[in-house]
Amino acid sequence: MESTTVTVRTQPDALVKIYDETRDEILYIDNTDTDGTTAPINLPSDGGHYFVDVTTFDTALSQSK
Length: 65
Known about the structure:
mainly beta
């Protein structure tokens, strides 16, 4: 069976986590690059129930202090 590959795009340096509820495990956790993109993420070919959690940070606030 062929696997599925996804790429998440959001703000630069956002924290991206992909969780598989079926297996109760985290499949991927990393920050996006300066373009706001993750590396390609391979999901298991035998399926699952996935959640993608993206946490963005307001860098304008931290730079103004």
